TrEMBL record:
UniProt xrefs under InterPro entries: AlkB-like, AlkB-like_sf, ALKBH7-like, Oxoglu/Fe-dep_dioxygenase_dom
Recorded family membership: Belongs to the alkB family.
Gene Ontology terms describing biological process: DNA damage response; fatty acid metabolic process
Domain of life: Eukaryota
Descriptive protein name: Fe2OG dioxygenase domain-containing protein
Amino acid sequence: MRFGDLPAWAIELSSSIRDAVFLEDHVSEPINSVTSNGGTKPCILPSNLLWREPLFDQLIVNVYHPGEGICAHVDLMRFEDGIGILSLESSCVMHFTRVEEGGSDIVEHHENHPLTIKVPVLLTAGSLVIMSREARYLWKHEINRKPGFQMWEGQELMQERRISITLRKLCQFFCLPALNVEH
Ligand SMILES: O=C(O)CCC(=O)C(=O)O
Ligand SMILES: [Fe+2]
């Protein structure tokens, strides 16, 4: 874990993340363009987060061996909005579960329970997760690598070592989430 001045490689990585988010938001399909389902494309990171300096000042590198993962959680409120996770080596499925109003218990996935939403996201080597606004504050993320949980398109993923680099920015003062979520 590292706080404060990041090593040169992490500063370079932060800068590449900023470029990637900017390109995705403003070049490939600009925000406010109409999507295939008729909605407007939301931005990945609002500009006050994308252009803050530094973009990140804390990093943690996690190494997971087969069977190891991370249980469902919302990142600590001592970190600002706008969190990046770079996933390396073995692929995995990260699940997002909505934080239940009034409680913080893990919501179990039941196939026949229509109100329980668990969103699987496949992370292959090099995938970048950016969590902001609702995704950062109202959804828990987890990686369960116990047998039977790493399913994608009906197949169990082959597990090897996985490394993730999580980049965050510490709140200067106690910060409350500024959730100005656009739909
Ligand atoms: O390893 C990952 O991909 C997730 C790490 C994470 O969620 C965290 O460190 O808070
Ligand atoms: Fe996390």
